Amino acid sequence: MKPKFKRIILHLFLIIVAFFQIVPIVIITFNSFRTDKEIKKFPIGFPTQININNFIDAWKIGGYARAYLNSITVSIITTLIVLLFAMLMGYFIAKTKIRIKNFLIIYFGVAMSIPLLSYLAPLYYGFSEMNLVNSHVGLILIYIAMNLPFNILLARTYILGIPNELSEAAVIDGCTTFQIIGKIIFPLSKPIATTIALIAFVSTWNEFTVANTFLQDTVLKTVSTRYVLFVAEKGSNLAMIFTAGMISMIPIVFVFVLLQNYFVEGMTAGSIKS
Amino acid sequence: MIKKSKVAFEKRASKLAYFIVLPIFLYHFLLVIVPSFNTVYGSFTEWSGIGKKHFIGVQNFVRLFHDVEFYQALLNNLKWMMVFLTIPIILGFVIGYFLSKIKKGQIIYRTIYFLPYVISAAIAGKIFATFYNPYFGINVIFERLNLDFIARDWLAPKNALLSVALVDNWHWWGFVLVIFMSGLQQIDPALYEVADVEGANTLEKMRYVTIPCIKNTIIFIITSTMVWSIGTFEYVWVMTKGGAGSELLSTMLYKNSLFKYQAGYASAIAVVQAILSFAILGIFAIIRRRGED
Q1: Less packed terminus of chain A by CB within 10 Å, N or C?
Q2: Does ipTM come in above 0.85?
Q3: How many CB atoms lie within 10 A of CB A25?
């Protein structure tokens, strides 16, 4: 009886903490179906009706069609390039005998702890001279650089663990380096590739500071920056704040819940190793 | 024959490696390291951001060390650090420890605790600012529950910094949790069995098995927390823009470099931040090395 009682207390405690984590998200969800009047009367409550008018309004007023397109374009291009670069770098650092190998490991380790704001202003003024401000190309260039160090080290650690026998056999069969990468290393690295793609995608979709600095033109804004603008302009309508917030975070929440193991394991492995 | 082809292959692969590795390295170097050095140089100049830099020696630093705002910001960063060295670490460790004891539902709990981590600071910040609204937010709930003494102007001076820190903590501690969980999972169960045989109680097991085994994880989390606290930016910027007494080094830097045309002065703030961060990293590297001897 006693251990069982202990277990119940333990779960009760875990549930209370979980409640505090989840309740803001539940409130956002409920309030996105409530009207401004209802929310102003009392900030929490069940929706009295399920209609998607809020969503249609927020989508239109917030210019979300364009913002989504922007975010999807920027996130996908960034993700693909980061994935390619990280896997190639990971392979060459892990499996070849280049001399600058140790230097690169330390370099990317240190690069990870350089805060964004210590290079943001020179980058901004440099980019504005090259007409890369207010441009998705400029944004993507920065996002790739920001995502590389962590993901390169992540890829390297994983590829290091792939046994050499397979690629050695392939060498004897006369495979080229690229054939080895394409036919042996990449297929065996699918889990880490998924992780890298997920981390790059989520961090790009959510990124605020760079996007907010480099994109001033409303039509170019990504979802998160467009949302901040939306709140500044339509902030008096609370229903809209919650609905637009919901629209902005749905894709990431969805992707995370589906693929969370890849994400969590990657975050922990990448953080601790370096 | 076999050996020959392997050696030839390795030579070819190494050559190819440089063709791939160097451009990617240079790309990163150009976009991150070069501008960082630019900031270091900029800290010794008068520079609006646009146009030429005029070398003025250490004047920016002299000005910074006489700036009341700077000390206010630094103090706020230290307060922030105190919050994040306690709440998320205690929460992450305790919950991580409990979660490692249960099997059923572990993943569900972890998902819920970690979920806020993947929500953008821009969205979470604005939504919580709505909750903090003095007229339509959580105050109304507290008043209804006759808990008026809790209700306050959450984002007013005095309260703002802590209110924002609580939101960032909501988002952050799930990450600390999963780091602790992965550390705890690597502890050899045999060690606990030995402790059981020797009649250790729960606290003794914690003291002699759990904590020593995850020492590196703890050092990692403390180091990261301290470094991140020096550079923290997004939540405060989204929720208060550094106003209402919540100015941080980063918000001061951001305003000076991009709105006040004081990029030179802002660079000096960035340099001070970098020195603080590297000092923290250095101290912990030494502690770690000592621990290994």
Answers
A1: N
A2: yes
A3: 19
